[in-house]
Amino acid sequence: MEYINVNNVSFAYDADPVLDHVSYKVNSGEFVTLTGENGAAKSTLIKLTLGILKPKTGTVQLAKKDAQGRKLRMAYVPQQISSFNAGFPSTVLEFVRSGRYPRQGWFRRLKAHDQEHVQKALEAVDMWDYRDKKIGELSGGQKQRVIIARTFASDPDLFILDEPTVGMDDATTAAFYELMAHAAHAHGKAVLMITHDPESVKAYVDRNIHLARDKAGQFCCFEVHLDHKEKGGLQDA
Fold it and tell me: Keyword Nucleotide-binding, does the record have it (predicted)?
């Protein structure tokens, strides 16, 4: 099922055009990466997709329902959003558990399945051993991992992630990619992730959408089809 449909979108900051006739789609059950050189307006494209920015031309459509006909739940993790101060009262475990309550209802006790989901989320970002620490005591990179874990624990239908693995070591990064691939392929989630390191993730993803400059210098969208381990040809998206 199609969760994202961006069609022929162009965008400019004042008189400075940055995106030109970009089109792409993301379906349920897919793990899709978004790449491009530094300054390629990847985060701008994500903000257009989310409705934070409005396109100059073209359309952006997000599904209202998930593949089961329920209201679509979406989670967005921007770059480096960790801003908890030292006095933030919650422990890591309490904070990540809170991601389950909107799904279960604020006054319902979490079940064993919920607790397992929370543990897997923390293990995937290598923060389970820190579960009893106060969030305000963590480093900036550790706080970012905890936010990612809470996002996963909330069990959205659509994940939109802007370079979430910055600051993670290789083992933690691989575990995170495996978790997102499992969420997509086994549970029908849709994952769109900006990455600066497409080689490290290509074994886990279905497609890579690449922003490249056109002759006028604006960024256009191309789609690199991946067969999990082998890259195909570059095609207009």
Answer: yes
